[in-house]
Structure formats: C-alpha cells, structure tokens
Amino acid sequence: MKPSWFRRYLLPGVVFQSAVIAGGYGTGREIVEFFLSLGPTPGLAAMAVSTLIWSAVAATTFEFARTFRTFEYRGFFQRLLGRGWLAFEITYVLMMLLVLAVIGAAAGAIVDETFGWPYAVGVVGAISAVAALLFFGSSAIERVLAGWSFVLYGVYIALVVFSLARWGGQVSQAFSASALEGSWLLNGVRYAGYNLSAGAVVLFTVRHIQTRKEAVSAGLLTGLIGILPALFLYLAMVGHYPEITERAVPANFLLEALGSRTFQVLFQVVLFGTLIETGGGMIHALNERIVATRHEAGHDTPPWVRSVVAVVCLGVAVSLTPLGLIELISAGYGTITWGFIVFYVIPILTLGIWMLRRRGAREAKAGTDP
Fold it and tell me: Residue 204 carries which DSSP code?
C-alpha cells in the first residue's frame, strides 16, 4: 500500500520541526540569541539563511537516504563518511545531551514561572514523559509528533495574531529603525548548523518516500515547516525589542504582556509538549541506531531497552540543568555547531551530491529509473 501524501511530503518536515523546537526555540531563548539580538531586520535575514540551508540539506539527505536505503544515522554516515562516521556520532551525542539539558532547564523554568511549582517537578516530568513515549517505538512517535505539531501551529498562529493586533505599530517601527548589518549571515549559518542534528532524527520517516521527486519536495518543505513557528514567535517578539532580549523565557514575557492567564497556561502546556517531542525524537534516533546494530548481529531489541536508553541519556543531561537556560544556550552550542557543519552539512552538499550523481549515472546506463 502506497504511503499517504502526508507521510511522503509533510511528515519528515513535521518531525524535523518537532526535533528542532526544543527548549530554546520554543521558549524564544534561541530566537533571541541567534536572531533578535542582531536587531529586527538582520535577525529576519539570518532566519532566511537558516531556512535555505535546512531545505538544501534536507532535500539532499532524504534523497541520499532513499537511494542508499539508510534510515538510521549510523548506516547513513557510514555510507557518506566511511570510517569518519564516528565523528558525526560523537558530535550528535554531545548535542543530544546538551539539548536534553536545555529541555530539562526549560521544563523547570516553565513550571516555576507559570504555575509556581518547584523547578525539579518540570525536569522530572519531562524526563518521565520522554521515556514513556520512546517505549512505543517509531509508529507511535510519528503519530504523537505529527499530532502535537498541528496543536503547536495553532497556538503559535494565535500568539502572533494577538500580538500584531495589539503591537503591530511597534513591530513596524522596530523594522523601520533597523538596518541590515552585523553578523546575520554567520548567525544564520550557525543556527542552521547545530539544528541539523535533527537530520539524524528525521531519517526514520524517509522510509515512506518512494521517488526522487518526493524526496526533494519533502526536503524543500522541511525548511519552511521547521522555521514557521520561529517566524511567528519572532514577529511577536519584535514589538517588545530590545527589553525582551533580557528575559530567560521570552515567550513568558509575551504572554504576560497579553494579559490572558488562560492563553498563557495553554501556551505553556503546548510548549511543555514540544520539549517531550524534541527529547523523544533525538533519543529515538540513537535508539534506531542501536536497533539496527543489534539486528545486524542477529539480535532483537525489546521495547524496554528504548526506555532504558532514554533514562540514561536524560540522567546525564540532568546534571547540566543547574547551569540554567541562558548559559546552556549561549555558551554550549557554539563549538558543537561547527561539528555538524564539518561532519554533515559540507559532506552531504558536496560528497553526497557527487555520490548521488554517480549512482544516477550508473542506473541510467543500466536502463533503470533512479
């Protein structure tokens, strides 16, 4: 049975968005660090750069995975980098632990600022929910990530509509007073680079893609699907620039300014769900790599192993959460960003494209359709 149009064209982008939103993106902290700190106009330009890179890398990645039938990152990077695949895995695991720490810190900040509950309640709640999600495997994760993403889009659209209705004049003035200058290109590359850890997360969805057209189309859509919630949040924040840049959870600043306790609680519940999405997605990629390795050795992997891997990863990450959300994002992402650019972005857009062209030429010579 042919997979649905949604699974072939939109599901990879939805899972990608679920993996990148994390604690920093969803709370607005990453949006401030990489974009709004530059000023409204340069920040928007940097966001456009990130989108283009995401789309280009995703399109190539999906076609590479489809062509070589590599739906988990170990097999994918062994094919792309040979023995160098281990460099990607080290980079990925380090980023995963850092993102999980950000998720824990964000969860703690959300329950503290929104409900007045102890910080530890948010951290433990997020960890428990991620472990429970991973127990049920790929199909359940696809359904949860896709379903929650639709809820997320609805809430983010409502946020930007309410904000522009109330502060649209300030948003317009902020853009008018801002010039295109500064390190917008570099920040766009950096933000795209470290978030492309999600390229490993989304590989399990590529098994639904059947043709090159579907792979490229899904990849191009992935960049747009991934950035749209960030754009909605960014436009809402611009009306409060520059004071909003000093807040640990900028989204809370917006919600407090709107003055609706009901919408604030709804937004934070949805945001808490995105933390579970991101944590589940990143650990699922590691689980898929473990399952594939065990399968090659002739062993099955029981469901409980997935949850154990999650608990171990989250336990290590929790030790980093006392550093706080701002410190984790501002100090932690820089070096790892360049690891993804060196071990993933550059190879897939050069060596990966060359390998695809060579494979296509061989198939054309043999009279087969790539």
Answer: G
Do 234 and 42 meet the contact criterion of CB atoms below 8 Å apart?
no
- The Cα 270–Cα 264 span in angstroms is 10
63, 356 Cβ separation under 8 angstroms: yes
Report d(CA 165, CA 282) in Å as an integer.
36
109: exposed, middle or buried (C-beta count within 10 Å: 0-12, 13-18, 19+)?
A: buried
Residue (of 363, 365, 293) closest to 67 by Cα position? 363
Tell me what pLDDT residue 58 has: 98
Q: How many residues does the chain have?
A: 370
Q: Annotate 111-172 with DSSP letters as a single string.
A: HHHHH---HHHHHHHHHHHHHHHHTTHHHHHHHHHHHHHHHHHHHHHHHHHHHHHHHHHHHH
Please give the Cα distance from 138 to 287 (Å, whole number): 10
Q: Which two tokens stand for residue 265?
A: 């609680």
Q: What is the pLDDT of residue 332?
A: 58
Q: How far apart are CA 308 and CA 13, in angstroms?
A: 28
- 5-366 maps to CATH 1.20.120.140: no
Show me where the domains of the chain are located.
5-366
Rounded Cα distance, 252 and 162, in Å:
14
| Strand ranges for 146-291 from DSSP E | none
- Integer-rounded Cα Rg, in Å, for the chain is 20
Half-sphere exposure of 63 (CA within 13 A, CB side): 24
Residue closest to 13 by CA, chosen among 151, 263, 296, 202? 202
pLDDT, tens digit, for every residue of 204-248? 999 999 999 999 999 999 999 999 999 999 999 999 999 999 887
CA atoms of 280 and 34, how far apart (whole Å): 24
Taking residues 115-133, report their average pLDDT. 84
For residues 369 and 363, is the Cβ–Cβ distance under 8 A?
A: yes
3-class DSSP assignment, residue 333: helix
The stretch 330-352 carries a mean pLDDT of 84
Q: Decide: 240 and 167 in contact? Cβ < 8 Å.
A: yes
Angle 353-358-360 from CA coordinates, rounded to 5°: 95
| Terminal Cα-to-Cα distance of the chain (whole angstroms) | 20
